[in-house]
Design a protein that fits this description.
Blueprint (H helix, E strand, L loop, with lengths): L2 H21 L2 E3 L1 H11 L1 H16 L10 E18 L5 E23 L3 H67 L5 H36 L7 E3 L11 H11 L1 H21 L5 E14 L8 E14 L7 H67 L5 H36 L8
Parallel strand pairs: 1-4
Antiparallel strand pairs: 2-3, 3-5, 5-6
């Protein structure tokens, strides 16, 4: 048998499949897009850094609960001209007399009580860390929403390109048909010209839509935090997973909405700040301890030539700022006002979020209805186009009527695709309000 022929065919087939595989664009799934955005998006990385800073700030080393240990050391050199008169009448005169002193010590300071100020400061730092985590979550939610806004725009334009390709094929087939009819005297030159114009218009629409698709892919890569050639396709399948009823979903809004949770943390922080300021009315008690070494080398005029001292000392001190010009009182008053401001802001934002939820719910329901209606329009337009195409092939209608049926079908499919993605984005906005955006399926 001649095996060389089969080997050549196998090599050609493998080469063909390799080329085909290279031409297939990689599909960027929704889950993969989220993973890449969470890893690379610059806004998310900045928020994560803020969380790390807040986590460092809440550590016990930053609260004042630990003692301070200070080391000191020094040396002094003197070169003096000295004239000394002693009690017995002797006089000593020195020129260029040298003396020096050395010292070293370790001091320990610890505050036993500061009016509960550090206690409330510590609680404040912990709540600021919790607030930074909520702010990071809000950044992630906004990024995910922005991601899907761009992702679904890419999906919509991808479907538009596929639709326009099909429309261009239909227009070219029509041009070929009317040209054939004209050649055999069964149609006019006007029909051929109209068909050529429609082919050109479809080609231009396809070219422009491809450009919009390329731009939208670049926008998506910016959200993903990547700087690569965006040669990929996206998943155009859309599923709707929002199940709860309106009342059940609204309960989630009041308990899980990230903006409301941030306002609650701000109220706690303001309350701890008020209590911390009130601690200024109370005294503070501290402990001190020092271990020191001192050595003096005196000049000849001194009674003692050299002395060395080492020792341990300790003490307790009480400090009470009885009156500091009224600054404590002003700080307490301002803290009370700030606490009231935070409470008013929560009431205001709660009212706004309630309005936003009602608007988002009705918008979602309306978009679902529009989607269902557009799906029916696609079915109707498809049936109409199929019948029109049959009559056109039989010569029972003009090419203009056929073109109108073609445009009606394209517009119906395009409207249905747009309604599909608009309804999904409305659902995602509703889920963000309820605090379920990061826990849902996309």
């Amino acid at each position: 048998m001649n095996y060389s022929k089969y080997i050549i065919l196998a090599v050609l087939w493998c080469a063909f499949m390799s080329v085909q595989a290279q031409n297939i664009e990689k599909t960027l799934s929704k889950e993969e897009a989220i993973r890449i955005a969470l890893e690379n998006n610059y806004g998310i990385q900045i928020s994560n850094n803020n969380v790390k800073i807040a986590a460092n700030n809440k550590k016990v080393m930053n609260t004042g609960y630990l003692p301070t240990l200070t080391g000191n050391a020094g040396a002094v050199y003197n070169l003096d001209n000295t004239e000394a008169t002693f009690s017995n009448g002797n006089v000593t005169s020195l020129e260029g007399a040298e003396s020096n002193r050395y010292n070293a010590s370790v001091s320990l300071n610890y505050i036993l009580f500061d009016g509960f100020g550090r206690r409330y400061n510590y609680k404040q730092l912990k709540e600021q860390h919790n607030l930074s985590e909520l702010q990071a979550r809000e950044t992630i939610e906004n990024t995910v929403l922005q991601l899907f806004s761009v992702y679904y725009n890419v999906a919509k334009l991808s479907e538009d390109v596929a639709l326009l390709k099909q429309s261009l094929k239909i227009s070219k087939d029509r041009l070929e048909r009317v040209q054939y009819q004209f050649d055999y005297g069964q149609n006019t030159k006007l029909a051929v010209l109209n068909a050529e114009v429609d082919v050109n218009n479809d080609s231009i629409s396809l070219l422009n839509t491809r450009q919009l698709l390329a731009n939208s892919k670049r926008d998506l890569f910016v959200v993903l935090g990547k700087n690569e050639l965006p040669e990929f396709s996206v998943d155009t399948l859309v599923t709707f997973g929002l199940q709860p009823q309106r009342e059940e979903l609204y309960k989630k809004v009041t308990s899980n909405n990230v903006t409301l949770q941030q306002l609650e943390k701000n109220i706690l922080i303001s309350d701890f700040q008020l209590k911390s300021n009130k601690s200024g009315y109370l005294p503070s008690i501290g402990l001190t301890g020092t271990y020191g070494w001192n050595k003096n080398n005196n000049n000849a005029a001194a009674f003692v030539a050299t002395s060395t001292n080492t020792g341990l000392s300790g003490g307790i001190n009480l400090t009470w700022n009885i009156f500091n010009g009224g600054r404590n009182r002003i700080q307490v008053q301002n803290a009370k006002i700030n606490l009231n401001t935070q409470q008013l802001q929560k009431q205001q934002v709660t009212l706004q979020i309630s309005r936003d939820f009602n608007n988002a719910w009705e918008d979602y329901q309306n978009k679902l209805f529009v989607l269902q209606t557009q799906q029916k329009n696609v079915q109707t337009s498809t049936d109409n186009f199929n019948r029109t195409e049959e009559r056109f092939k039989l010569g029972q209608i003009t090419s203009i009527e056929f073109r109108q049926a073609q445009l009606n079908l394209i517009n119906a499919i395009n409207a249905k695709n747009g309604a599909k993605y608009e309804a999904k984005l409305a659902e995602l906005q509703l889920m963000q309000l309820s605090g379920d955006l990061l826990n849902s399926t996309y």
